[in-house]
Amino acid sequence: MTYTYIKFDSVTLAEKARSLLTTHKIKSRIRRNPNPNHKEGCNYALVIDTDVWKSYDLINAAKIKNLGVESYRERI
Predict the structure, then answer these.
(1) Phi, then psi, of 72 in degrees rounded to 5
(2) Using H for helix, E for strand and C for coil, what is the string for the chain?
(3) How far apart are CA 65 and CA 71, in angstroms?
(4) Following CA atoms 73, 48, 14, 8 in sequence, which dihedral angle do they give, to the nearest 10 degrees?
(5) What are the CA-CA distances from residue 28 to residues 6, 33, 35, 59, 75 (Å)?
(6) In angstroms, what CA-CA distances link 18 with 38, 39, 40, 49, 75?
(7) Beta bridge partner(s), residue 73
(8) Which of 29, 20, 30, 31 is nearest to 55 (CA)?
């Protein structure tokens, strides 16, 4: 399965973004980044159940700091 998610430095920023999306009736969940870049350290992923790009635009418009959109494919 492939996940597309928005990355955040901290769980606090991810929670702010999730709260914003909830007010727009967009379902999401926070988890540790499944594919972290070790130069950035451990960060958090906000996995969105619907249109990730619409969510990304809303988060940027609210000026919530993020590390961008990334995809990850689980290995079997």
Answers:
(1) -145, 135
(2) CEEEEEEECCHHHHHHHHHHHHHCCCCEEEEECCCCCCCCCCCEEEEECCCHHHHHHHHHHCCCCCCCEEEEECCC
(3) 19
(4) 40
(5) 10, 14, 18, 13, 22
(6) 24, 25, 21, 12, 27
(7) 2
(8) 20
pTM, full prediction: 0.85
Give the pLDDT of residue 2. Answer: 78
Going by C-alpha positions, the residue among 64, 49, 65 that lies closest to residue 5 is: 49
pLDDT of residue 49: 84
CA distance 13 to 60: 12
Span 5-42, pLDDT tens digits: 999 999 999 999 999 999 999 999 999 988 777 676 67
